[in-house]
C-alpha cells in the first residue's frame, strides 16, 4: 500500500486542492471541539510553507434538504482555522461558481481558502455523496494537484475524494491519511507479532467483519464490552438482562468455533440492576444472574487481558470494555489502557469514535502509537476491505 504523499509532489506556485476532514461538532454556530481542525494543520502548513495555495474543502454533517443547511456552514470553521494559523483565511460561501473561481484565481502563494460544505451539493440530487462525475471534474479543474487528507471518508466514493482523483489530477495523501495507512493498514497487512486484537463496544453486529478478518490475522482476540453477552449466550451461559443480539447468537457460536484458543472472552463482569451509575454494582464470575446486566469487564478479566497482552508487538483496539461513560463501569477500559501503556516496543492503535474518545477522556491519549480518527473507515480497513478513497490515491 505504498501511496504517494504530499512530500512526493512539488507545491511551489501550485493551486493545491486539499480534502480535509472539518466535520466538527457545532452547537448554535459555535465549534464545541476543534480537534479535527488542529489535526489538519500539519498538512495545511506544509502546503503554505512550500509555496502552495491551499484550497480547502470538507463535508460537515448530513445535508439532504435546503433546511438542513442551517448550522452546517464551514464559515465558523474557516474563522477558527484563521485563528489557529495566525493568518487570514478566505471563506467562499459557495461550492461552485464565479465567486469561487475568482477567489481561487486571486490567490497568492501561501494563501489559504476554504469553500463551503461539499454536502451542500447533495440537495439537488446527491452530487457529492453520489460521486457525480461532472462535480468531481469541476472541483479538479480548480487546482493543479489534489491532496486527500480526509481518512474519515476514505471508505466512501464521493465527488470530493474519488471524483476529483478519477479525473487524473495528481493525487497524494496528506499527513493524516499517511499515518492512518501506515498504522492501521500495516497492522492488518504486515503486523509485528504477537499481534493482539481487542474488540469491544456495544454490539457484535458492528464488528462482525472485523472479528472475521482478524481471526485469520491476529494471534489473540480479546472480547469485551456489550458484545460479550452475545458470545456468553452462544456458550449457553446465563446473561441476565445484559445487552444481547439474539439474531447474532448463532454467528457468535461459529466465531467461537472458528477462532478456537485465539478468542478470549471475559471471565467476570461488573453488573448492576439498571443501566445507571446510581445503583449498587456487583461483581460476578462467569454467568450474570437474573435481574443484573453486565456493564463492564471485572478485575479477573483485566488481569487475564493484561497477561494476554504481555509481549505483544502489535495491538489493535476497537470498542470500549464497558460503559466507560459512567465511572462505575470505566475500570475495565482503564485497566486495558494501563496494560497497553506498559507494553515496551509495541505498535498500539486504538480506533473507533467511542474508543478514541474513551482513551482521550481517561487520559491515555499519549500512550498509544496511533489514535485512528475515522470510525467507519478504520473499521473497514480492519475488515480487510479496499477503501475507495485510499485506492484513488496515486501509488508510489
Ligand atoms: P466505537 O465507537 O469505539 O467503535 P462502539 O460504538 O461499538 O465503539 O461502542 C461504544 C459504546 O458501547 C459505548 O457507548 C459504551 O457505553 C457501550 N458499551 C460498552 N460496554 C457495554 C455493555 N456491557 N453494555 C452496554 N453498552 C456497552
Ligand atoms: Mg461508536
From TrEMBL:
It catalyses: (2R)-3-phosphoglycerate + ATP = (2R)-3-phospho-glyceroyl phosphate + ADP. It comes from the Bacteria. InterPro entries: Phosphoglycerate_kinase (IPR001576), Phosphoglycerate_kinase_CS (IPR015911), Phosphoglycerate_kinase_N (IPR015824), Phosphoglycerate_kinase_sf (IPR036043). It is an enzyme of class 2 (transferase). GO terms for biological process: gluconeogenesis; glycolytic process. GO terms for molecular function: ADP binding; ATP binding; phosphoglycerate kinase activity. Its EC number is 2.7.2.3. Transmembrane segments: none annotated. ATP binds at residues 207, 294, 325, 352-355. Keywords: ATP-binding, Cytoplasm, Glycolysis, Kinase, Nucleotide-binding, Transferase. Substrate binds at residues 21-23, 36, 59-62, 119, 156. GO terms for cellular component: cell surface; cytosol. PROSITE patterns: PGLYCERATE_KINASE. Pathway: Carbohydrate degradation; glycolysis; pyruvate from D-glyceraldehyde 3-phosphate: step 2/5. It is found in: Cytoplasm. (2R)-3-phosphoglycerate binds at residues 36, 119, 156. Gene3D superfamilies: Phosphoglycerate kinase, N-terminal domain. CDD domains: Phosphoglycerate_kinase. HAMAP family: Phosphoglyc_kinase. Belongs to the phosphoglycerate kinase family. Monomer. This is Phosphoglycerate kinase. It comes from Enterococcus ureilyticus. The gene is pgk.
Amino acid at each position: 500500500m505504498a501511496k504517494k504523499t504530499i512530500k512526493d509532489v512539488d507545491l511551489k506556485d501550485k493551486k493545491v486542492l486539499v480534502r480535509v476532514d472539518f466535520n466538527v461538532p457545532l452547537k448554535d454556530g459555535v465549534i464545541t471541539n476543534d480537534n479535527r481542525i488542529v489535526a489538519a494543520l500539519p498538512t495545511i502548513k506544509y502546503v503554505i510553507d512550500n509555496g502552495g495555495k491551499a484550497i480547502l474543502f470538507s463535508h460537515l454533517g448530513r445535508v439532504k434538504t435546503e433546511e438542513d443547511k442551517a448550522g452546517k456552514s464551514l464559515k465558523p470553521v474557516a474563522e477558527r482555522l484563521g485563528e489557529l494559523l495566525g493568518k487570514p483565511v478566505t471563506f467562499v460561501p459557495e461550492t461552485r461558481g464565479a465567486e469561487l473561481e475568482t477567489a481561487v484565481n486571486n490567490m497568492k502563494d501561501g494563501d489559504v481558502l476554504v469553500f463551503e460544505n461539499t454536502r451542500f451539493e447533495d440537495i439537488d440530487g446527491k452530487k457529492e455523496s453520489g460521486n457525480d462525475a461532472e462535480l468531481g471534474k469541476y472541483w479538479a479543474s480548480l487546482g493543479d494537484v489534489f491532496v486527500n487528507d480526509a481518512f474519515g471518508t476514505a471508505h466512501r466514493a464521493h465527488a470530493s475524494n474519488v471524483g476529483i482523483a478519477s479525473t487524473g489530477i495528481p493525487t497524494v495523501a496528506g499527513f493524516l491519511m499517511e499515518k492512518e495507512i501506515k498504522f492501521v493498514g500495516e497492522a492488518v497487512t504486515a503486523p509485528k507479532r504477537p499481534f493482539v486484537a481487542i474488540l469491544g463496544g456495544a454490539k457484535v453486529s458492528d464488528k462482525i467483519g472485523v472479528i472475521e478478518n482478524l481471526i485469520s490475522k491476529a494471534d489473540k482476540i480479546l472480547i469485551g464490552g456489550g458484545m460479550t453477552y452475545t458470545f456468553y449466550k452462544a456458550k449457553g451461559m446465563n446473561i441476565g438482562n445484559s445487552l444481547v443480539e439474539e439474531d447474532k447468537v448463532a454467528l457468535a457460536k461459529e466465531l467461537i468455533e472458528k477462532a478456537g484458543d485465539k478468542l478470549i472472552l471475559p471471565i467476570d463482569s461488573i453488573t448492576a440492576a439498571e443501566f445507571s451509575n446510581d445503583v449498587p454494582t456487583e461483581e460476578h464470575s462467569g454467568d450474570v444472574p437474573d435481574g443484573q446486566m453486565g456493564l463492564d469487564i471485572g478485575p479477573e478479566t483485566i488481569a487475564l487481558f493484561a497477561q494476554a497482552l504481555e509481549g505483544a508487538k502489535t495491538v489493535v483496539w476497537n470498542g470500549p470494555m464497558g460503559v466507560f461513560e459512567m465511572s462505575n463501569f470505566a475500570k475495565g477500559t482503564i485497566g486495558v489502557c494501563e496494560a497497553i501503556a506498559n507494553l515496551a516496543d509495541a505498535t498500539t492503535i486504538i480506533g473507533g469514535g467511542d474508543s478514541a474518545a474513551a482513551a482521550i477522556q481517561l487520559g491515555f491519549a499519549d500512550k498509544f502509537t496511533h489514535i485512528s480518527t475515522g470510525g467507519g473507515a478504520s473499521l473497514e480497513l480492519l475488515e480487510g476491505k479496499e477503501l475507495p478513497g485510499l485506492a484513488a490515491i496515486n501509488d508510489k
